[in-house]
Amino acid sequence: MRRMASALHAALGMLILALLLAPATALAHEHREVGPYEFTVGFINEPAFENEQNGIWLRVVDHTTNQPVEGLAATLRAEVIKGAQQRELELKPAWNEPGVYTAVFYPTEPGDYTFRFYGEINGTPVDESFTSSPDGFDGVQPVSALQFPRSVPTNATLAEQLAAAQATARTALI
């Protein structure tokens, strides 16, 4: 009897540990009611890193039926916004995940991004923006924090250094 209780405690401990160590992707997404629907929004891969393939992840569930909403790629549009820059992206249904849509892009700068969805869902107009924040989904992180044994400069840093070197070379020629 004692051996069975020990085995049960060990199994329970391993289950709790597995739940604590499991990826918490859904926790890093923002949830919002949009009319009779619940939108869950975030990056496809979190945490998101600059210059790594990523994109918009959207799940839509109907509150009245508690069912995923399918077919939205035809009626809902998406934009990604960073500062004054914006780009329209095509939402595509995620394979084998009803009600989930993705749009791939490469975030090239760290910081906060906004995902805007507009159009309509079964006659309900939609125009909602979700911006990365501590209360929603995380912004894009610089990849340098993970590089080892040394950080590699970003393309933007190299472009700035090249422009400075060219300016110095022009001055030296004069």
Would you summarize the structure shown here?
By secondary structure, this protein is of the alpha+beta class. The chain is built from two helices and twelve strands; from the N terminus they run αββββββββββββα.
Description:
The chain has 174 residues and is of the alpha+beta class. 22% of the residues lie in helices and 36% in strands. It starts with a helix and ends with a helix. Strands 1, 2, 4, 5, 8 and 9 form a 6-stranded antiparallel beta sheet that branches. A 4-stranded antiparallel beta sheet has the order 7-6-10-11, with no helix packed on it. The radius of gyration is 22 Å and the shape is elongated. It is built from 2 helices and 12 strands; from the N terminus they run αββββββββββββα.
Descriptive keywords:
174 residues; alpha+beta; four-stranded antiparallel β-sheet; 2 helices; 12 strands; 22% helix; elongated
